[in-house]
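Translate sequence into structure tokens.
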Amino acid sequence: MKRPLSSRTVRRLINFWPPLFFAGIRLTRMSEDWRRAEAELRLRWWNRNAVGTMFGGSLFAMTDPFYPLMLQHNLGSDYIVWMKSASLEFLSPGRTIARARFLLTPESLQEIRDETASGRKSEPVFRVEICDPQDKLIARVRMTLYVCRSRSTYKPKVESLTTVEEPASRFAAFLEETE
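Result follows.
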């Protein structure tokens, strides 16, 4: 049985993960229960845009992996967690340091468990504010995640086809109706 990695070890590993490392993104805090995290992006020559402020892709990348990782850890291996969609609204230029905070509440975790208990999917929405050190808002991110029970742990009842020819006969009936 594998021992789960501590939040401290994961924080160190994430900080050397190439997509975040080369963008200049650091995970500065991760709580032991994986329900609170903080990421930081410092303005450097390699993450500036053409006008000298933080590149928007780096700001988005700073928020991308953390809620899925936190959810996967808190829900366990019985669940599949993916990022479904996200949008970013730029509010002011990032000129020094950008910080983003992530929080998973016990209520949101329970809601996801309740929604997926019968095999349905859950699509929780999380919002992240990216601020500078003076708490001036740089950007807002809205993320929709896709969460479901893994097939190995949830086996839905599947109606089997009575014969192999059934789909073909349905298609033939459809063609006759359209003629």
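Note: Residues 7-178 form a domain with the Thiol Ester Dehydrase; Chain A fold (CATH 3.10.129.10).
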